[in-house]
Design goal:
This protein is α+β, with helices and mostly antiparallel strands. Helix content is about 35%, strand content about 20%. The strands form six sheets. The chain has a six-stranded mixed beta sheet, with helices on both faces. Strands 1-2-4-3 form a four-stranded mixed beta sheet. Helix 1 links the parallel strand 1 and strand 2. It starts with 7 loop residues before the first strand and ends with a strand.
Length: about 475
């Protein structure tokens, strides 16, 4: 006898509440319910076989509309009823509530999950639905041109498409219905999508002592096709550091996180987001970055599936196709492999991924930032959840002494001083392209970390450990 799984349920006796299981099986992949078998697979049998063989099909049909196959089985000399439920092409409810069988559990569908389920059962996708109240005037010409330029440069569209009108572009992408832009079109190319879809913005927050200690935040708005450029600019300007080093005489200042990998992670977070759900949220801590988007993985997919070669199953196929044409993502499920390769090139720990809170999180260690501020290295995904608060709390307690809340500019100043202790204030100001008055203010804030020995020009620096 098989254990309970996605397709099998055992019940000692029949109760009408098991009609919920009928709805769950019908809405998923079908299944079997055995009456007269306990959860531990002990066969107890049933007493009123003939009455139940007559009553159960009628109850199921009258309450759910499902026509079951009902069989009498004899197991260990005892009577058992087998109820076979086929998957339904139409959504099945019980008393107005929809259920879904996932794994060995029954889930009640609500909110966005119910909305997505009903659309799927009707053969619809949210991104394909006309966006009521919008016209082609709501589509941004600059966003269309941005897309065409990238797609042509990538060789994924012919150069002759450069003169296409925006209605031709949307029609070719399947993003316009009877002259009305679809939800996907407005999200991708709209002049201001947040007027219609409030949660299509991207949240960034810098945290200190704990998750209640929000030090800084930004909300990145606009269309999806150009959003990653805006996000990367804000991260570079306000949240992440660019430590300076020299290769020979050539000055290098790469972002602390491999830039191509970070863009790939952000692209995937936007493309695979449940677009009718809540905001994409990037939380930045001293030792790691966590990026979360709503939307569970495809059925039968796990985080381990993503880490190996796999077929890409896009939640939003039209949006994903536009990002593919623009050269932002691949169509072969190779995104995670590319991310890991970029981190390997930089000799940094890999980011990790996990399913949580109805979505997927990417956890990116900040090894370089931690090494500059005198920390103890980055934290992996297993440690980040439990230890991030403690690490940030300890850093904030020591304040400027250990650089827990350094700005990107302050971290860069320290990096230059460590790299070249004889660098002058004037040289630092010139490299940072700031005035000497501004630099003096920054140095004053770092007086517990760095110390100038000797005159302004001609002395040297000491880093106070």
């Amino acid at each position: 006898m098989n254990q309970e799984n996605q397709n099998i349920e055992h019940k000692r006796i029949w109760k009408d509440e098991y009609l919920k299981w009928v709805s769950g099986f019908a809405n998923a992949h079908g299944g079997k319910i055995y009456i007269g078998i306990d959860d531990d697979l002990t066969v107890v049998g049933i007493d009123d076989l003939h009455q139940q063989m007559e009553d159960l099909p009628n109850k199921i049909i009258n309450n759910t509309g499902v026509f079951p196959e009902t069989n009498h089985l004899t197991i260990d000399g005892k009577d058992v009823i087998e109820i076979i439920i086929e998957p339904s092409m139409m959504p099945i409810s019980y008393r107005g509530v929809y259920y879904y069988r996932s794994g060995a559990t029954k889930q009640e569908l609500r909110g966005t999950a119910l909305h997505q389920f009903l659309l799927k059962k009707m053969g619809l996708n949210w991104e394909d639905m006309p966006c009521d109240g919008t016209t082609l005037d709501d589509i941004d010409d600059n966003a269309i041109n941005y897309f065409l330029t990238h797609a042509i440069d990538e060789g994924r569209l012919d150069s002759e498409r450069s003169n296409s009108t925006k209605d031709e572009v949307l029609a070719n992408l399947g993003l316009i219905k009877d002259g009305i832009p679809t939800n996907g079109a407005v999200l991708l190319f709209g002049k201001y999508p947040q007027r219609v879809f409030v949660t299509s913005s991207f949240k960034i927050g810098r945290f200190g002592v704990d998750d209640s200690d929000l030090l800084n935040q930004d909300m990145i708005s606009g269309n999806l096709i150009q959003m990653t450029d805006k996000i990367m600019q804000v991260l570079s300007d306000k949240y992440l550091i660019r430590p300076i080093h020299y290769e020979g005489l050539q000055r290098k200042e790469p972002l602390e996180i491999p830039q191509d990998a970070l863009r790939e992670i952000i692209f995937n977070s936007i493309v695979h987001k449940l677009q009718i759900g809540t905001w994409n949220q990037m939380s930045i801590y001293d030792d790691h970055i966590q990026l979360w988007n709503e939307g569970v993985l495809p059925e039968d997919y796990t985080v381990e599936t993503l880490m190996s070669k796999h077929i890409s199953k896009a939640r939003n196929p039209k949006i994903a196709h536009v990002f593919f044409l623009a050269g932002f993502i691949e169509a072969w499920g190779r995104g995670y492999e590319k991310i890991m390769c970029e981190f390997d090139k930089a000799n940094l720990k890999h980011p990790t991924f996990r399913e949580e809170h109805g979505g997927v999180s990417a956890i990116i260690p900040r090894e370089i930032f931690m090494s500059i501020r005198g920390g103890h290295g980055s934290m992996g995904a297993d440690d980040a959840k439990n230890d991030a608060k403690n690490g940030a709390k300890n850093g904030a307690k020591n304040g400027a002494k250990n650089g827990a809340n350094l700005t990107a500019r302050q971290a860069e100043i320290i990096s230059m001083i460590k790299e070249n202790p004889t660098i002058s204030l004037d040289e630092i100001a010139e490299i940072l392209r700031i005035g000497t008055t501004t630099l003096d203010r920054e140095i004053k804030k770092l007086n517990n970390i760095v110390k100038r020995v000797g005159p302004r020009n001609g002395g040297y620096w000491e880093v106070i450990e």
